[in-house]
Design goal:
mainly beta, 1 helix, binds zinc ion
Length: 157
């Protein structure tokens, strides 16, 4: 008896799955420091010495367990940036804005965040985080509203 391939039937659909993600101790401590103290913590690798922000449980450079956290910044240097001219669904800010890779003082890695569309945001420029008001923070990277050129006045101050 010869087998015939089955006739395939397709159905279009959409499924949604809400879930909670546990941050773990290192990332949880990083996010709590943003929320509660307006500070950025980096993970220190005792094996290779890398100071990484945001911190991870294991060093991305050598794979060793990160056991120490240290404050970095608040000021940092723009290592790269890209301008976003048009709004899109899920955008982290209202266009126009800039994505920035910021290396906080004392860190060996960069943090991806956003910045205003300001000509002061350029490679090599010093920037600082502008935190949301304490009552608006929720323990997320967005507790930092964005990075602004150092010396720029904060909105609402
Ligand atoms: Zn390492």
């Amino acid at each position: 008896m010869a087998l015939k391939p089955p006739e395939l039937t397709y159905m279009e659909g959409e499924s949604r799955c809400d879930y909670n993600w546990t941050t773990g101790e290192v990332v949880g401590t990083f996010l709590a420091a943003l929320r509660d103290h307006g500070k950025m913590l980096a993970g220190v690798c005792e094996s290779c010495g890398q100071v990484a922000v945001p911190p991870t449980s294991y060093c991305e450079s050598c794979g060793s367990e990160v056991s120490d956290l240290r404050e970095v910044g608040p000021r940092g240097v723009v290592m790269s940036w890209a301008r976003v001219a048009d709004d899109f669904e899920g955008a982290p800010a209202e266009a126009p804005f800039r994505y920035v890779l910021v290396r906080p003082a004392g860190a060996d890695t960069e943090l991806l965040h956003v910045a205003p569309d300001d000509d002061g945001i350029r490679i090599g420029a010093t920037v600082r985080p502008e935190f949301r008001p304490r009552e608006q923070r929720g323990g997320a990277i967005t507790d930092i509203r964005w990075f602004v050129p150092d010396g720029a006045e904060s909105e609402g101050s």
